[in-house]
Write a structure and sequence with these properties.
This protein has four domains: 170 residues, Beta-Lactamase; 63 residues; 158 residues, Histidine kinase-like ATPase, C-terminal domain (Heat Shock Protein 90, 2-Layer Sandwich), CATH 3.30.565; 120 residues, Rossmann fold (3-Layer(aba) Sandwich), CATH 3.40.50. Helices cover 46% and strands 22% of the residues. The protein contains 18 helices and 18 strands.
């Protein structure tokens, strides 16, 4: 479905101007009122410790005074609706609060609840609270439509990001000795917040479009064509691939790409990288790698980590147009409280430190302050200005830290700290990729975008599979109830029933089936922890037909062995 970008952008602007939680809720309420019939919004944070409880942060609407009087703190245990809310990453919808067995009927009578919609809030994988809305009294029973619920989820992602920024602001107010460092962090968060929210909001539609474009271009190139027509299609395919790369960069800026972490030996990984870089660097630039003598193993996505160090090294190359020296070193160290006190951006723990230093032109302070800002570029060659913003996002997503020091005329040094994976052993190199597998199994495709659904069906039928399609999660559940399927390909976000809900219901009825998820949303929409715990394969939109077929065959083979 098409996302209402006007409302999303207006909310993003309002949230960025907010300096306290009440202003966040006021802004969110205006967005909610513009696209739903709901007039009230409330925001709760999840309190640490036991017993598990939610604490009211702000509320706007006719029942806000009642909230502070009767429910400033909600205890989770014993309340079925709150237990469900604190155990899921999906919205919890109560259509009729008076009849639903999950609700506290005394509380419902006191507040006059009719329909309740509560949404959990996450920052990365951390659950930080919940925001809710709904109807009361004469407003009647009004469950959200699929479109309204999808927009409320996007609002929740925006609100969670803004809440993180406001909490930093409050910390700034109460910690005078960290005032300057916190101000810099808040400015950095605010600068990337708008881009991160926009990337998340449009990712679904944009990646669906690219899936259709890329797949159909590959279909067209398989047919006999005049050379001039083939060149036209190849040019279009290359442009679409560049568009895909830009989309992935934007998601990386907002830390929205799902990680596929594995144990990596940074010494070995950087050795391969420096071998490649020697072919890319001009003759006047030398490169040396000084690895630590101890194990430098981290848990990381190899593709994204390669992008981090390739970005840093190519930036160094561009800063040394007249020649120079590029030096990479690795070391294992433990950061303690003294380090954190001296470096407010730091965290205690054991890390692998990778230092990338050049002898280039360096940066003045006003440039250094903005070096990780999206679209900011100062080099003579220009560029998109996304490279270091992407690098920053990837490092943070790996629970790491990155710091830059530079002097004009001396050079620039980047220090990347990645958590040490003690005891982990890197996996052996994978065998060479075989030919694209075919199959004859029965496959159910659940996808709400008709273009993507048709492309996926065509890919699978051309590979020999027997395919049935469903336009949403509920239809997929019904189709699986009628007849068995060997594999179910599920879009992560669909109307009627989400991909996760469809998986749970189909898996309960058909435990023998294999499952693959497809997603064009940021990682928070489909937590990697859920996929790993369930042993489910997934493909990221826009997907390549060959990659989709390989992932499906891997899932089918794994199911047979189980």
């Amino acid at each position: 479905m098409a996302i209402d970008l006007r409302v999303i952008l207006e909310l993003a602007r309002s949230l960025q101007c907010a300096t306290d939680v009440h202003a966040l809720v006021v802004a969110t309420r205006e967005a909610v009122r513009s696209v739903t019939p709901y007039q009230s919004v409330w925001l709760f944070s999840e309190e640490p410790g036991a017993p598990r409880r939610l604490r009211a942060l702000a509320a706007v609407g006719d029942v806000s005074e009642l909230l502070w009087e009767h429910a400033p703190v909600l205890y989770v245990e014993g309340d079925a609706m709150l237990v469900e809310l604190c155990a899921t990453d999906q919205p919890v919808v109560v259509e009729d609060a008076g009849a639903d067995p999950r609700t506290d009927k005394a509380m419902v009578a006191r507040f006059g609840n009719r329909t309740i919609v509560n949404l959990p809030l996450f920052v990365g994988d951390e659950r930080v609270g919940a925001f809710g809305t709904g109807t009361f009294g004469d407003e009647g029973i009004r469950p959200p439509t699929a479109d309204e619920l999808e927009l409320l989820q996007v609002f929740g992602a925006q609100l969670a990001a803004a809440l993180q920024r406001v909490r930093l602001l409050e910390e700034h107010r109460t910690a005078a000795r960290e005032r300057d460092a916190l101000r810099q962090r808040m400015v950095a968060v605010q600068r990337i917040e708008s881009l991160a929210l926009l990337a998340g909001g449009v990712a679904h539609d944009f990646n669906n479009l690219l899936t259709v474009i890329l797949s159909n271009l590959r279909f067209a190139l398989e047919a006999p064509l005049p050379e001039s027509r083939r060149e036209d299609l190849v040019g279009a395919l290359e442009a679409a691939l560049r568009a895909r790369d830009v989309a992935q960069q934007l998601l990386a800026v907002g830390r929205g790409r799902a990680l596929r972490p594995e144990a990596l030996d940074l010494n070995a990984r950087l050795s391969l990288l420096t071998s490649l870089l020697r072919r890319l660097l001009p003759e006047g630039v030398s490169i040396t790698l000084t690895p630590t003598q101890t194990a430098a193993t981290v848990l990381a996505d190899p593709t994204q980590l390669d992008q981090v160090f390739m970005n840093l090294c190519l930036n160094a190359r561009d800063a040394m147009e007249g020649g120079g020296r590029l030096t990479l070193t690795t070391e294992v160290l433990e950061l303690n409280g003294a380090f954190v006190r001296a470096h407010p951006w730091g965290r205690a723990g054991r890390f692998v430190l990778v230092t990338v230093a050049d002898t280039g032109r360096g940066m003045p302070p006003e440039v250094l302050d903005r070096v990780f800002e999206p679209f900011f570029t100062h080099g003579p060659k220009g560029g998109t200005g996304l490279g270091l913003a992407v690098t920053h996002g990837i490092v943070q997503q790996h629970a790491g830290m990155i710091h830059c020091y530079s002097e004009v005329g001396v050079g620039t040094t980047f220090r990347v700290y990645l958590p040490l994976a003690e005891g982990a052993r890197p996996a052996p190199a994978p065998p060479p990729e075989e030919a694209v597998p075919r199959g004859s199994e029965r496959v159910l495709i659940a996808e709400d975008n008709v273009g993507v659904r048709d492309v996926a069906r065509r890919i699978l039928e051309r590979a020999g599979y027997v395919v049935e399609t469903a336009p949403d999660g509920l239809r997929a559940i019904e189709a699986a109830a009628r007849s068995p399927f060997d594999l179910v390909l599920l879009d992560a976000v669909m109307p009627g029933a989400s991909g996760r809900e469809a998986y749970e219901r189909i898996h309960a009825a058909r435990p023998e089936a294999a499952f693959v998820f497809a997603s064009g949303y940021p990682a928070d929409m489909l937590p990697l922890s859920f996929l790993q715990d369930a042993g489910i394969e997934w493909v990221e939109k826009p997907y390549d037909p060959d990659h989709l077929l390989r992932v499906m065959r891997r899932a089918l083979n794994a199911r047979r062995r189980a």
